[in-house]
């Protein structure tokens, strides 16, 4: 590991962790609260896809501010640097219509069989916490939802920033039907309710401009609200199990996700 501890959260980096599943090295950003170094307690944790962006989304600065103001509990955060995003991120059970996400199953195997046991063995993680969270941005959010949905033994909360929920099995010019061909929506529709699992969604009103069904709502918001509707049908409760954060004039970029980060962290780890 390298990195110089400073006041507040201490940022370190685990470089090129070898992964048999991905057949490459994976770099991990690690944020430890100051209390970690003089206590022996265990901590809830946050795992984020696209960990190379944690500085751009101001994760450390936001953790510092919210912790100082006693708005959230101390947590350990891990940011996983992306590799081949278009292939490693996705839905493990189903590549999209262009065969993107072909390595999503391998990425899930890396996360669940390699990374999480390694982190649990080397850091004081509170594996019994009800607030252990996985999250991500865009394609990384799609991946985070898929992993969190299938692995509540590790993650009880899922954070989705501008999720690529359009992931589909047919193209728009191939007879696409949003009630049949959105992969993640079908996964939830055909899945089972998991007690204790909670969800947080962010979407910006300028995430994109496409409006495939011409209902006056951009596709990214439509897809998010439709996924929430599928969760509600599974008996997840709005405002209790599900939170939705819509950012006016928010775009599909790190600046908007940084703006939403405080609300996400307070939702996940608020006192």
SSE-based structural type = alpha/beta
CATH-scheme architecture:
3-Layer(aba) Sandwich
Share of residues in strands:
15-25%
Task: Calculate the terminal CA-CA distance, rounded to whole Å.
Answer: 31 Å
- Rg value: 18 Å
User: What is the tally of helical segments?
Assistant: 7
Spans where pLDDT lies below 50 across 5 or more residues? 1-5
Shape category? globular
What fold name goes in the CATH topology slot?
A: Rossmann fold
Return the average pLDDT rounded to an integer: 95
Give the strand order of the largest sheet, numbering strands 1, 2, ... along the chain: 1-2-4-3-5-6-7-8
Number of structural units classed as domains: 1
How do the helices and strands line up, and which of them pair or pack?
Layout lengths: L9 E10 L4 E9 L12 E4 L10 H10 L7 E5 L4 H4 L15 H19 L10 E5 L1 H12 L6 E5 L21 H7 L8 E9 L12 H15 L8 E10 L2 H16 L2
Parallel strand pairs: 3-4, 3-5, 5-6, 6-7, 7-8
Antiparallel strand pairs: 1-2, 2-4
Commentary on this structure:
The chain is an alpha/beta fold. Helices cover 31% and strands 21% of the residues. It has one domain: Alpha/Beta hydrolase fold, catalytic domain (Rossmann fold), CATH 3.40.50.1820.
Which key phrases capture this entry?
single chain, globular, 8-stranded mixed sheet, alpha/beta, 271 residues, Rossmann fold, disordered N terminus
């Amino acid at each position: 590991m390298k990195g110089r501890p400073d006041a507040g959260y201490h940022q370190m980096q685990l470089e090129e962790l070898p992964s048999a599943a991905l057949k490459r090295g994976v770099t991990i950003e690690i944020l430890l609260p100051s209390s970690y170094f003089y206590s022996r307690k265990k901590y809830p944790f946050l795992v984020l896809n696209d960990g190379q962006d944690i500085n751009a989304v101001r994760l450390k600065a936001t953790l510092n501010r919210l912790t100082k103001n006693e708005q959230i509990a101390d947590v350990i955060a891990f940011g996983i640097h992306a590799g081949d995003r278009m292939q490693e991120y996705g839905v493990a059970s189903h590549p999209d219509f262009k065969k993107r996400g072909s390595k999503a199953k391998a990425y899930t195997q890396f996360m669940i069989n390699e990374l999480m046991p390694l982190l649990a063995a080397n850091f004081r993680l509170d594996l019994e916490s009800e607030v252990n969270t996985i999250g991500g941005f865009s394609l990384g959010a799609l991946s985070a939802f898929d992993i969190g949905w299938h692995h509540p033994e590790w993650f009880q909360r899922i954070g989705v920033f501008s999720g690529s929920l359009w992931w589909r099995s047919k193209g728009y010019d191939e007879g696409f039907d949003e009630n049949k061909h959105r992969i993640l929506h079908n996964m939830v529709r055909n899945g089972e309710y998991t007690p204790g699992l909670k969800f947080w969604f962010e979407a910006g009103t300028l995430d994109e401009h496409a409006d495939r069904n011409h209902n006056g709502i951009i596709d990214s918001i439509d897809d998010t609200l439709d996924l929430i509707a599928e969760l509600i049908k599974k008996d997840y409760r709005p405002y209790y199990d599900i939170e939705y954060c819509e950012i006016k004039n928010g775009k599909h970029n790190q600046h908007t996700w940084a703006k939403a980060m405080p609300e996400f962290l307070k939702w996940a780890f608020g006192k």
